[in-house]
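Notebook, student rotation project (T.W.).
Task set for the rotation: take a protein with a known small-molecule partner, predict the structure of the complex, and write up what can be learned from the model alone. Partner molecule chosen: 2-acetamido-2-deoxy-beta-D-glucopyranose. Sequence and SMILES entered below by T.W., checked by me.
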Amino acid sequence: MHAVIGGVILVIIITILIFIVCQRRKKEKYFRDNGGMILKHQRIRIFSETELVKATNNYDNSQFLGEGGFGSVYKGVLADNTLVAVKKAKDVDKARMNQEFQHEIGIVSQVNHKNVVKLLGLCLETKVPLLVYEFVSNGTLHHHIHDKRSQILGSWKNRLRIATETALALDYLHSLADPPIIHGDVKSMNILLDDHYTAKVSDFGASVLISPNQTGIGSKIQGTFGYLDPEYLMTGNLTAKSDVYSFGVVLVELLTGEKPTSSSRDGEKRNIIQYFISSVEDNQIVQVLNFEPADDDEMEEVEAVAGLVKRCLNGSGLKRPTMKVVAEELARLKKLSDNFWAQQGNEETECLLGESSSHTSYEISSINMDQMDTYTVHTTFDIERGSTVSI
Ligand SMILES: *[C@@H]1O[C@H](CO)[C@@H](O)[C@H](O)[C@H]1NC(C)=O
Ligand SMILES: *[C@@H]1O[C@H](CO)[C@@H](O)[C@H](O)[C@H]1NC(C)=O
Ligand SMILES: *[C@@H]1O[C@H](CO)[C@@H](O)[C@H](O)[C@H]1NC(C)=O
Ligand SMILES: *[C@@H]1O[C@H](CO)[C@@H](O)[C@H](O)[C@H]1NC(C)=O
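Predicted structure of the complex:
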């Protein structure tokens, strides 16, 4: 009798052991398939599956942040209390889990810009790799534009600042690597605001994991209706200028408060984008704005931005300015607009600078210094002094 019980227990123990070994083997296999052997030598942090299950409370519904084009996003808390956003991609092309993918992840992990949501690491032990991003607390630009209760866009200064920060981020992505990192889905939902209302571009880099859908030319197009570059729609060739177009659409949204798919307010069956462009051409920009510029100086800035937006929306990518030109132009306007404040606020700035020594220094070591532009140094510096005033 005792022998029988002993035998049964032995069988149970062996079964459990086999199960554990199989689970581990499976994780190891996924890890290898996902390029873990090479990626573990990159600077990017590798998370274990258990760590992320714990952080997100096993992907509990209460942690669900949203569903993007690339998959679902969950909020999580790591063991060291860091807040993160964990992104589970939907579809991944296994054929791309090769050196190209690893090369791209290598680039993505170098991205370190104040206005880009930082990729903290990856989990490779799952069938589809999970991406772990820093958590950005204050919602999307989309939310702040379309929720009437939000006050943040009440001032032109804030609108101009958010536009400039977004442009700097996109220019940074375009100039970091060759071929450029193309975002591919620039829209107000993908621009997040942190607790200082600093803009942070999100959801780039996830695109490197996405398989091109092979079921037909139309279905290969990725992106969001209303923001899509018409040239990309026709040719299927996604370029850096596609991001310029989408950014132009975001600025129309920011200036008019209208969603890009809505029709114009004048009752004509015209899309808001066309309505915006013809308003610029007729020097009637004031009729499409959803705010009133405070004075003539502000009106001039708004007109300059509107003119720039029109150029971003040119049907031909070649005729659109590069993101660098757009960012420089916006930064110049913002500087003009800030000048008065800068004179007033000198003392306060010095005070903030003084405090920065006690601040943990921002991780600069992982940026390729050759590829960094001077403004990146400036904006990175701003994080240290805890201020949202940049450039
Ligand atoms: C944005 O951040 C500010 C400051 O931290 C906070 O007071 C506010 O409630 C936040 N707004 C939203 C919509 O989360
Ligand atoms: C590919 O496109 C088809 C049709 O649009 C869609 O049903 C399918 O889910 C897509 N597959 C992937 C992997 O995106
Ligand atoms: C796609 O666009 C890029 C940049 O404009 C260009 O160099 C390339 O030749 C284009 N490719 C195709 C297939 O049209
Ligand atoms: C596109 O840009 C070119 C060159 O600046 C200009 O001649 C043309 O009118 C623009 N097209 C549109 C639709 O704005």
